[in-house]
Amino acid sequence: MASIEMRNIVKKYGDGYPAVNDVSVDIADGEFMILVGPSGCGKSTLLRMIVGLEDITSGDMVIGGNRVNDKAPRERNLSMVFQNYALYPHLTVYENIAFPLRLAKASEEEVRKKVDDAATVLELHEHLQRKPANLSGGQRQRVAMGRAIVRDADAFLFDEPLSNLDAKLRGQMRTEISRLQKRLGITTVYVTHDQTEAMTLGDRVCVLRKGIVQQVASPRDLYEHPANLFVAGFIGSPPMNFLPATVNGASLETPLGTIGLDDARAEAVRGHDLVLVGVRPEHFEDAELVDEAIAPRGTTFEADVDVVEWLGDSQYAYLPYTAPEEVTAKLRDLSRELDSDQLRTQAVVSVDAASRVAEGNRTTFWLDTRRIHLFDPESGENLAR
Ligand code: ADP
Asked: Which residues of the chain have pLDDT under 50?
């Protein structure tokens, strides 16, 4: 096993466009790191530079303490697990796992021992004589990982391994990969464009935008303390609402009403005329259902409900509002980049299933003002972080 250190990594393709732009990230030995971002952000390019399938324009790639920039993929001792698992259909599970050992001309005894060890860890013993076609998706994934384990690879690299699967299988496989990675304790780098995968799998997540690292943090930190508007809009579903707000001393005038600020937040917005207030849908509630004990932590406002989506355990209410054209344009751009159709001039609020909220009604909502985020509308920077 090994740590992976990326120091000021740059990748320029033929036309000079920096697909990866000065990326410095340290991945600890045994850590599960996710590279995430919208299509074209450079995550696959970065992964391919770790494995050695892509030349590095500048910077240092250091694996297990050794600079590997000039090493061929097979000299890096990494194991790439592909989307289709690349299993051999005519070989048994045993021979599929044994394959790299056969290539290395290992003795029969070594093959038997290593396959046996891998099968124990991966719980594949009863399937060793079966063919891949007869296995479930999860079992095939385990065979692919078995082949990586017998090689004693220093790290596993995954490139969008679940993107071809349906939602149910994707959920199962996510759990499976997470469990295996913990059991094996092997350094893992996993590329995905799916924020749910990123949040549920990784020890830490590296969010990329246009080849530039936006934030590297634990899933909880990304959710609670996003570095900027981009990370805030990317992590969480439905996404965070961004309301334009005029700063008025220690309070903000938003299209949904006035929000009072605590001292730290008031300080953070000092000198700004206009900010964007970020509020996650789950930090709203139907005011009638808020416990008296916690109600004072927030503020209430009235709004017209446009649409209600009933989800069983909760419901989403959509509250349209009007905003200056510059803010609308900003949200439109961000929405396009994040490939989301939800960042519009309407607030999406999540309320308890018991709420009587109804389409076309004016309703009083509550908003937890302790959980709001404040962003600079120009730079996108989180002002209160
Ligand atoms: P992601 O995996 O995040 O979708 P990629 O790493 O595939 O992104 O691509 C990052 C950027 O590099 C994109 O703008 C893409 O068009 C560009 N790119 C990727 N591969 C090549 C290539 N072989 N030649 C030129 N440009 C490329």
From this structure: none
